Amino acid sequence: MGRMATERQLCGLVTGLARQIETHVRERASSLGLTASQAIALRELTGPLTLRELSARMGCEPSNATFVSDRLEEQGLVERRPHPQDRRAKQLVLTAKGTDLRERLLELFAEDSPLAPLTQQEQDRLHALLLRAVGS
Q1: Would you say the pTM of this structure is higher than 0.90?
Q2: Which of 34, 51, 100, 135 is disulfide-compatible with 38, CB 3.0–4.6 A?
Q3: Domain boundaries, the chain
Q4: How far is CA 123 from the centre of its chain?
Q5: How many Cα atoms sit within 13 Å of 114 on the Cβ side?
Q6: 94 has which bridge partners?
């Protein structure tokens, strides 16, 4: 198989996997009354983050992360706190309710995940290859 055919097929497979993951996230988020963006924000809140850090993790503009964070704050899932080292900045922190919902969400994400057919070793290898491909 030629290089161009291989690249075309790889692009098709990556696009197909991305669609499956998006559908999976949207369905799981919806079952908890969240939008896909809210679910992604909760997934990425592994600890206190600034809006800029959250937007980078979500792969979106800071204004989008602000909008999503505002909705999560209205729902009592996150709160803004002063940044411990930067008086000008705020950090988003999960509330107890947010932590509980995040744990449930992560459980739902793991159920029938599009990546579930891969072993942990295969997922680690795919992760490494994708990082290399995107130049990170």
Answers
A1: no
A2: 34
A3: 3-134
A4: 16
A5: 16
A6: 78
